[in-house]
Amino acid sequence: MSVLxxxxxxxxxxxxxxAKIDEALGGSxxxxxxxxxxxxxxxxxxxxxxxxxxxxxxxxxxxxVDLDGLQTEPGKTFRWKGKxxxxxxxxxxxxxxxxxxxKFNPVLPEKYKDSEFVFLANIGPELQYNVIEQVKQPKFVxxxxxxxxxTGSPDALKKTLxxxxxxxxxxxxxxxxxxxxxxxxxxxxxxxxxxxxLIIKKGEHGxxxxxxxxYFSCPAYPVENLYDPTGAxxxxxxxxMGYLAMKGExxxxxxxxxxxxxxxxxxxxxxxxxxxxxxxxxxxxxxSRIQKLLDLLRVDQDDEWxxx
Amino acid sequence: MSVLxxxxxxxxxxxxxxAKIDEALGGSxxxxxxxxxxxxxxxxxxxxxxxxxxxxxxxxxxxxVDLDGLQTEPGKTFRWKGKxxxxxxxxxxxxxxxxxxxKFNPVLPEKYKDSEFVFLANIGPELQYNVIEQVKQPKFVxxxxxxxxxTGSPDALKKTLxxxxxxxxxxxxxxxxxxxxxxxxxxxxxxxxxxxxLIIKKGEHGxxxxxxxxYFSCPAYPVENLYDPTGAxxxxxxxxMGYLAMKGExxxxxxxxxxxxxxxxxxxxxxxxxxxxxxxxxxxxxxSRIQKLLDLLRVDQDDEWxxx
Lengths: 308, 308
Prior knowledge:
Two copies of one chain form a homodimer. By secondary structure, chain A is of the alpha/beta class. Chain A has one domain: UDP-N-acetylmuramoyl-L-alanine:D-glutamate ligase. Helix content of chain A is about 35%, strand content about 25%. In chain A, the strands form two sheets. Chain A has a nine-stranded mixed beta sheet with strand order 5-4-1-8-9-10-11-12-13, sandwiched between helices. In chain A, strand 2 and strand 3 form a beta hairpin. Chains A and B meet through strand 13, helix 9 and helix 11 of A and strand 13, helix 9 and helix 11 of B.
């Protein structure tokens, strides 16, 4: 089955303690599509300016991404610049120029309206809600959000949350959204807002899946050369949603496996600037990291845990 | 098989944002023994003052801990006071009164010298080395250490490291000891110093086992009521070493299972002050948390991860 993503397509400039890059292809929908397309046909809804480069269109097309929903408007493409500090975890935004993205109004092409798997990347909750309204019979809707919307648009966000099946969120955002320091207590508060599934991203510490009352904890793949974390969260979401769309059914086991797939893909993303590493990798490379993650998680039952 | 632990027995005073306790039973060897004794006979080497309370002796005795190696010296027992900040991760030491511990000279009773499983808790590396020298044919020696020794006694520490099989250490200490920010690169540097096994504790983010070139990542048990983290690391070590001594063989599978056992036990420790929660729990309670941790780790192989 296909997967629909609505988000940003942007040009990112990034500085790390080791290197820098200017105006490279970025944006949530870009990272998402680059990897979801390994698993399922991707339908993309986003907006770019008339300065958007042909070879970037070409890259997405070669990935098999359906671009009928990619609007081109007069003006410049969304630009963002960020700088990572020494620890590679904290970053500061140098600038955000929304440009054509400021008036983004996601309109789904007719053929997208039958989408069953939908990912609402980190855009305003009102826009996310409008997308949900356009999809006829979604099977699984997942969304991202961020502190800007949690504190700035809490009511709109809660309205959207009440309509989704899953929320993909950072651990610090769980605390902000729930008002609870303990993430397990916080997760239950958020589940009561709507989504029965939470996927909590913890960067180098991996991710936690909370599906109803079942927990799964997946480590991050042991990356030894962290180059640029930009896009890792959207790559993670792309792996998860692509895998689920390929499977076609939301089960606890598929969600668990989807988190492993997502972690494998996110680990490639951070090994290069922009989508550079994602351009290089093959299905075999991905399978190899999935198997290594399964080995990181492997532990066998014992006949007798305690002599008692 | 029995397990030998050499460390501290102390009286701890602890303040958290929620509660406080004065002069409660603590110390690395205490926490360790309280839980290792669920799995194997424990031989304890430590020193206390003549103020040490009879009911604390009684508690350890009832746990089946062999106290022939517990020295009593004229003077006061080691006292420590710490205060946890709002996030319950950072803590400040209010005071450390070594008292009789200042002149601690670990002397093994004759019958302890045949110990096969040895844990050197966080004491000076020279003392740890002296213990190793007294054990005839150890099968598995693990040690703890801390930033104080890493920066203060690097040569003595390296001498001791060259004689142990395993190091149990925090993630920040991996960076300090190896001089490498990436923990996987850092771990290899430390392995070259001696121990082929590293157990890296990450608090709420779980623990990583590195055994030769095999990695295992174990989540922390989802604790919803974190009360007092004091002793969690020593409780973790006690669970691991107790389990390994019960099994009698160091295999990759036993180490993996031992980390799960250790995580289960550490989760009880932080739910109360001092050894209060550890006094209450039964073998059934422990088994139940082990099974929940196994479910947190559970993910099944897929026939086809990618349609390619």
